[in-house]
Input
Amino acid sequence: MSREQKIAETFVELADTLVADFDVIDFLQQLTVRCRDIFAVTDVAVLLAYPGPELYSPAPCDPSPTLAAVLDLALREGPALDAYRTAGIVSPGNLANAPATWREFTVRARESGYTYASAVPLRLRQETVGSLLLLRATDSPLPADDLAMAQAFADAATIGLLHARTLKTADTVNEQLHAALHSRISIEQAKGFLAAHRNTSLDEAFATMRGHARRHRLLLTAVARHIVDTGDLPLPPAASPDRHAAGGPAND
Output
């Protein structure tokens, strides 16, 4: 698939929130997956301040300890926090020349092997709900065109989140966002279990989980919890033992 096709598919995915079974955790996770693939960045994470005033990180793309350590500091200082506070793109260049106010974030990021860190806000007009952190471990920064495209993805994602909040009850979306921080752990564990069980990559395991959840109208977190508990994908609702006993359809 060409890069242009991937970009087009990403915008379609980010617009696909006007459905009854919208899964915000799946939505944010797929945003990070797409960004890592299209922009050739080392790691990506979404940081949200929605609902509530404090940033938290519901959906990194990779479960590595290095990323987790950097994210702990990114919630308190660095490009992601600055992008959220200013509602503008933050791309300072090489981390060796990062602002002094990022001291702890910069030290941890460079120790983890990252050389460049950029961030774009998740914003719609006057409302900013978080930011998208893009980390590189290369000898060059993210190109300006890629940074602009990342901002377009972030804008589309924000529209999707706010549309979901409008069309569904605010409490439902807020509960999903609150749960996202804890669900991230289950999703990353499930990816590892499924990848080991099926001898595939983590990305392939996530694609399998996501496809299964969408095909059978299950929440991604429910699929992840089942994998963590049992080591494999859950049965589709139509194929459950109770449905069979009641004479329901047995096909997948």
About this structure: Confidence is low (pLDDT under 50) at residues 240-252.
